[in-house]
C-alpha cells in the first residue's frame, strides 16, 4: 500500500464545498474511484484552528500509483483537486517500512543459570 500525502490551504468560504467533494461519496471522490480503480480511498483531515487540510490517498501499490500518474485522466483529476485549493503542497509518498528479521527473531532466549 502506498500513501500519498498532500497539504491544502482552502479559502474559508470554500471549506465546506472542498470537504464535501473530497470526502467518501463526494463528487471528486466518486470520480476518482471510477477513473483510478487502484486508488483505494482518500482520507481528509482538517486542522483544528486553520483552513488547512491534509489529504491522504491510499493506492494499492507504488507501481499502481506511478502508472496512474502516467494517465492523462488521473493527472487532470489531481489538478482539479489542486484548483479547488488556495494552495497545495505534496508532502510525498509513504509506505510502511519493510520489517527485516533481526538476530533476536532467530535466536532462542538465553537464560542465566
User: How many angstroms separate the termini?
Assistant: 46 Å
* Number of separate helices: 5
Strand content range: 25-35%
Work out the radius of gyration: 19 Å
Mean pLDDT: 88
| Strand ordering within the main sheet | 2-3-1-4
CATH topology: Alpha-Beta Plaits
Number of strands: 4
Which regions contain 5 or more consecutive residues with pLDDT less than 50? none
**Judging from the principal axes of the Cα atoms, what is the shape?**
globular
CATH architecture: 2-Layer Sandwich
SSE topology string? EHHEEHHEH
Question: What's the CATH first level?
Answer: Alpha Beta
Number of domains: 1
Could you estimate the helical fraction of the residues in percent?
25-40%
What composes the largest sheet? 4 strands, antiparallel
Brief account:
With 113 residues, this protein is α+β, with helices and mostly antiparallel strands.
List strands and helices in order, with pairings.
Layout: E1 2-9, H1 15-22, H2 27-35, E2 39-46, E3 52-59, H3 62-69, H4 72-83, E4 87-94, H5 103-106
Description:
The chain has helices at 15-22, 27-35, 62-69, 72-83, 103-106, and strands at 2-9, 39-46, 52-59, 87-94. The protein is an alpha+beta fold and 113 residues long. The chain has one domain (2-95): Alpha-Beta Plaits (2-Layer Sandwich). A four-stranded antiparallel beta sheet has the order 2-3-1-4. Strand 2 and strand 3 (52-59) form a beta hairpin. Helix 2 runs antiparallel to helix 4 (72-83). The longest helix is centred in the C-terminal third of the chain and has 12 residues, at 72-83. The chain starts with a strand and ends in a 7-residue tail after the last helix.
Amino acid at each position: 500500500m502506498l500513501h500519498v500525502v498532500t497539504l491544502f490551504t482552502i479559502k474559508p468560504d470554500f471549506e465546506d464545498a472542498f470537504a464535501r467533494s473530497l470526502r467518501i461519496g463526494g463528487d471528486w471522490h466518486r470520480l476518482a474511484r471510477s477513473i483510478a480503480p487502484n486508488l483505494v480511498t482518500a482520507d481528509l483531515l482538517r486542522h483544528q484552528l486553520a483552513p488547512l487540510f491534509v489529504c491522504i490517498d491510499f493506492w494499492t501499490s507504488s507501481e499502481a500509483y506511478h502508472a496512474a500518474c502516467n494517465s492523462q485522466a488521473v493527472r487532470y483529476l489531481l489538478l482539479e483537486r489542486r484548483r479547488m485549493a488556495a494552495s497545495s503542497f505534496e508532502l510525498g509518498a509513504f509506505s510502511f517500512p519493510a520489517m527485516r528479521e533481526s538476530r533476536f527473531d532467530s535466536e532462542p532466549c538465553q537464560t542465566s543459570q
